[in-house]
């Protein structure tokens, strides 16, 4: 049987093992949305992951939705990310950049010149975002005009090229968690009456155009996509036919032969059984015409589940999130079935080195297996936890 610790090749990427680091928003970029200098150390510490998916990174100034998140649309941002990718590659790691546009999950204070957030709809999401004042209700969006859509597709394409210039091994397009592409996909959000709304074939049009443009720019062999078919994150109501919608979307993507699809099973950072969905069926839609593409699963996996998922062919890779925050050497710990260090929520978002690059690897960890300044134990399997502000977990 295939092991979680076996190497894997997909697209243009060869990974040393089948453990991925899921994208984790850490809110440590500066006012120019440039990644923190500490980011190179943070990611390099975790480079034993078969694949690192970076924190979500906005493709444009209008794509930002949270305070102190990085971008990939200026030369300074590209240069800072190059330091990160060089550090990861120096440790023989592989890293892809998650391309992000939040759509309506934003606030006027975060956007240039007080612009409104944009979306498939003009309806405001019933959720909050993190601003300079703490957590605030998101602002009301405006629905994108038809003539604006090609410009956003072009921003995705440019961002993908910038990611290559920054030395990334590829990109993961964020199509999950109620952000812009998900806002077009779901009929619970998309209320358009034009060619981008209504039946599923119209609602997949914009995300499909984005994926086609990115693949044309950098190659499908370096392009992946993240999906979360049933998560309620960011006021993303259930689609009226989630299985049919996402099966159809993945089938339409088949000619591109993407390097991977990364699926959040259930509620992001929460219950896996939030709504009925057959992920094996969705995987079959992907594999039917792309057997070499990697199927990456995420959300609530512990060691035993991950071992079984890979061994029995349910998944090609398993992505872990918060466990990588407190266990930079997570691959080693999982391999030898060692105790897992707990995370401390107070330093999830913002700040400096504390809770970011000071979690020790196993060989230098205190005997009780806890990181500095931590006193309460945490279960060894990924469990939903309350972040510092009580609003969201550090997932992208």
CATH architecture: Alpha-Beta Barrel
Portion in helices: 25-40%
Number of helices: 11
The CATH topology annotation reads as: TIM Barrel
Strand content: 5-15%
CATH class: Alpha Beta
Distance between the termini: 32 Å
Helix/strand/pairing category: alpha/beta
The CATH homology group name: Aldolase class I
Sequence of strands across the biggest β-sheet: 3-4-5-10-11-12-13-14
Secondary-structure element string: EEEHEHEEEEEHEHHHEHEHEHEHH
Give start-end ranges of low-pLDDT stretches. 367-393
Total strand segments = 14
Radius of gyration: 19 Å
Number of domains: 1
Largest sheet: 8 strands, parallel, barrel
Q: Which whole number gives the mean pLDDT?
A: 93
Shape: globular
Oligomer description: single chain
Task: Give the topology.
Layout: E1 8-10, E2 13-15, E3 19-21, H1 39-45, E4 51-58, H2 75-90, E5 95-100, E6 118-119, E7 128-131, E8 134-137, E9 142-143, H3 149-165, E10 170-174, H4 180-185, H5 200-203, H6 205-218, E11 223-227, H7 242-253, E12 260-264, H8 279-287, E13 294-298, H9 303-311, E14 317-320, H10 322-326, H11 330-336
Parallel strand pairs: 3-4, 3-14, 4-5, 5-10, 6-9, 10-11, 11-12, 12-13, 13-14
Antiparallel strand pairs: 1-2, 7-8
Helix pairs in contact: 1-2, 3-6, 7-8
């Amino acid at each position: 049987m295939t092991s979680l610790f076996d190497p894997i090749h997909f697209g243009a990427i060869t990974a040393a093992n089948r453990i991925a680091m899921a994208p984790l928003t850490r809110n440590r970029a500066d006012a120019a949305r440039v990644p923190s200098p500490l980011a190179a150390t943070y990611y390099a510490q975790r480079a034993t992951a078969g694949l690192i998916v970076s924190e979500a990174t906005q493709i444009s100034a209008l794509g930002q939705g949270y305070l102190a998140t990085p971008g990939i649309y200026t030369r300074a941002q590209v240069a800072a990310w190059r330091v990160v990718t060089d550090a990861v590659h120096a440790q023989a790691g592989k890293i892809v950049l998650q391309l992000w546009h939040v759509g309506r999950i934003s606030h006027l204070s975060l956007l240039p010149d007080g612009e409104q957030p944009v979306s498939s709809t003009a309806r405001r999401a019933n959720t909050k975002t993190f601003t300079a004042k703490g957590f605030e209700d998101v602002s009301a969006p405006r629905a994108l005009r038809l003539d604006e859509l090609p410009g956003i597709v072009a921003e995705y394409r440019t961002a993908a090229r910038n990611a290559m210039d920054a030395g990334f091994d590829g990109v993961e397009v964020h199509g999950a968690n109620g952000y812009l592409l998900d806002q077009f996909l779901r009929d619970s959000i998309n209320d358009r009456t034009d060619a981008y709304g209504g039946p599923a074939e119209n609602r997949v049009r914009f995300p499909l155009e984005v994926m086609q443009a990115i693949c044309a720019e950098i190659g499908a062999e370096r392009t992946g996509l993240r999906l979360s078919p049933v998560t309620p994150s960011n006021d993303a109501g259930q689609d009226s036919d989630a299985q049919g919608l996402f099966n159809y979307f993945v089938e339409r993507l088949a000619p591109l032969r993407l390097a991977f699809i990364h699926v959040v099973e259930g509620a992001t950072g929460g219950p896996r059984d939030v709504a009925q969905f057959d992920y094996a069926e969705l995987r079959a839609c992907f594999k039917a015409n792309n057997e070499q593409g990697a199927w990456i699963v995420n959300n609530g996996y512990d060691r035993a589940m991950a071992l079984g998922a890979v061994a029995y062919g349910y998944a090609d890779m398993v992505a872990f999130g918060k466990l990588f925050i407190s266990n930079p050497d997570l691959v080693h710990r999982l391999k030898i079935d060692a105790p897992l260090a707990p995370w401390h929520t107070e330093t999830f978002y913002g700040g400096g080195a504390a809770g970011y690059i000071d979690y020790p690897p196993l060989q230098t960890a205190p005997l009780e297996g806890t990181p500095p300044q931590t006193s309460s134990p945490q279960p060894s399997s990924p469990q939903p936890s309350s972040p510092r502000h009580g609003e969201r977990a550090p997932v992208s």
